[in-house]
Design goal:
By secondary structure, the protein is an alpha/beta fold. It has twelve helices and 18 strands. The chain is globular and about 70 Å long.
Length: 465
């Protein structure tokens, strides 16, 4: 295994080992501070992070606003307070070592307002901001204002070119690195474009090499690239280290830091990780963001799959093949299906799936009464956690809506991610993970239920294993 030479990240020479910044409360000040104390780059999540009172009690995120707009404003304040708190914890735990970054999603609610609030309230504590899930054109301008480096997450050279041409060329001095996230292997939301097939993964080396060529055209040959997604041990990436074609490279680990003593996820979640089999993490398209995402196959995703299979196209008038009448809803309104689809619908109704929910695509999805009530309540209780949500039709605009019908084929992402990060329920909530998570059960490092500290994990990584 080659020696890991330091790279310059956020103004300091550090090990080229980066903790991936998972979502709601899954990477926090404790885990990121511990990672930074090992002379790496720790990353805490700035997505609706937890805050605590003076006695160390978690502040409950209860919403009292009567409208979505009012609840949206409450969520912004929760997020700013949580981000500042986690930055302070991370700074204290880091012992002045390494670097500390905050991770945000550009498509999360009020990303700019939250970023301003946290960076203002935690001045001098945060060294960099990583940002993906969308095209974060304004991240560079905001970070420059606070003297903080920015780290855009991209999945292709095309995406970085667009960002550079439109905005980043004006703020080149604060570009800390470019994070290439493999859209087929990374956990959570993935940056698959319309020209890429989710079922046909492409090797990362040619894509990263293309990104480096693009960066060299812009005079960024010495700016590091952070390889993210699909990394388990560095001995499998040894040909990337000190590779003159790729230039300076760092490696981001998102999944492996989940199973550490400092990781804030539940013990049930940690136990679940070591039971996973290859293929248990898969790409799906259920997210209300509209992005593909990678998550563990469990009852939560199974229900969404089955719900979407109980779906038929309908017409409000008898037209074409849609001639078979069906009464739906409490008011027994008549819609028209094809004769074949009417028979399918009657079978689902006989099985108890009596609620026919309309989708934006002129289809009906059949669910049972409790699920129908849950979906409607979740849509009503929306607090606007995304810039635009397909599930609730919330949008961060003057109208407060996407202008489309709420989509019952998706789910409330805020509700389920809060639930899994603050409970032991790993079956009926969304569990994001990278595609290599099955390797926990095969890696002898974790034999006999061993859970390492962050320092033990980093020491292991430096050996290549």
């Amino acid at each position: 295994m080659k020696t890991l030479n330091p790279v310059r990240i956020s103004g300091r020479e550090v090990l080229p080992l980066v903790e991936g910044g998972k979502g709601i409360s899954v990477s926090n000040g404790e885990s990121s501070g511990a990672w930074a104390s090992c002379d790496g780059v720790g990353t805490f999540s700035g997505v609706n992070a937890d805050s605590y009172d003076a006695n160390g009690n978690k502040n409950p995120q209860n919403y009292f606003g009567r409208t979505r707009r009012e609840r949206h404003e409450e969520l912004i304040q929760f997020s700013i307070a949580g981000g500042i708190h986690q930055a302070r914890v991370a700074y204290e735990r880091s012992n002045g070592q390494g670097r500390l970054h905050m991770n945000i999603l550009w498509e999360m609610a009020a990303a700019e307002d939250i970023l301003h609030g946290v960076l203002e309230g935690a001045r001098g504590l945060i060294n960099g901001v990583t940002c993906g899930a969308g095209m974060p054109y304004r991240i560079a301008e905001i970070c420059e204002r606070y003297g903080v480096y920015y780290y855009p997450i991209v999945s292709s050279s095309r995406a970085f070119r667009a960002l550079w041409k439109r905005a980043y060329h004006k703020f080149r001095d604060w570009l800390g690195a470019v994070v290439y996230e493999d859209p087929w292997l990374a956990g959570g939301h993935n940056g698959l474009s319309n020209v890429e097939d989710p079922q046909r993964p492409e090797a990362p080396f040619p894509r990263v090499l293309e990104l480096r060529k693009q960066m060299r055209e812009f005079g960024l040959g010495d700016t590091p690239i952070v390889m993210a997604g699909g990394i388990w041990c560095l001995k499998e990436w040894e040909d990337w280290i000190d590779n003159p074609d790729l230039g300076p490279i760092a490696f981001q680990f998102g999944t492996r830091p989940l199973l550490t003593k400092e990781s804030p996820i539940s013990e049930a979640w940690k136990r679940k990780l070591v039971t996973l089999q290859e293929g248990d993490v898969y790409l799906n398209h259920f997210s209300p963001t509209g992005f593909y995402s990678s998550a563990v196959r469990n009852d939560f995703l199974n229900e969404l799959t089955q719900r979407n299979e109980r779906q038929v196209a309908y017409s409000i008038e008898a037209v074409g093949d849609h001639l078979a009448a069906l009464e739906v809803g409490a008011r027994k309104r008549v819609v028209f299906l094809t004769p074949h689809d009417r028979e399918r619908a009657l079978t689902w109704i006989a099985q108890g799936y009596v609620e026919a929910l309309r989708t934006p695509d002129s289809t009906l999805v059949f669910v049972d009464t409790p699920k129908g009530l849950e979906i409607r309540n979740d849509q009503i209780n929306c607090m606007g956690c995304l810039s635009a949500c397909q599930f609730s039709n919330w949008a961060q605009n003057e109208a407060g809506t996407t202008g489309k019908k709420a989509d019952p084929r998706s789910y409330c992402i805020q509700k389920t991610l809060q639930a899994i990060s603050h409970s032991d329920d790993c079956e009926f909530e969304l569990m994001f993970a990278g595609h290599n998570a099955y390797r926990f059960g095969r890696d002898p490092f974790y034999a006999n239920g061993f859970v390492p500290t962050v320092r033990e994990l980093v020491d292991r990584m430096k050996t290549g294993d």
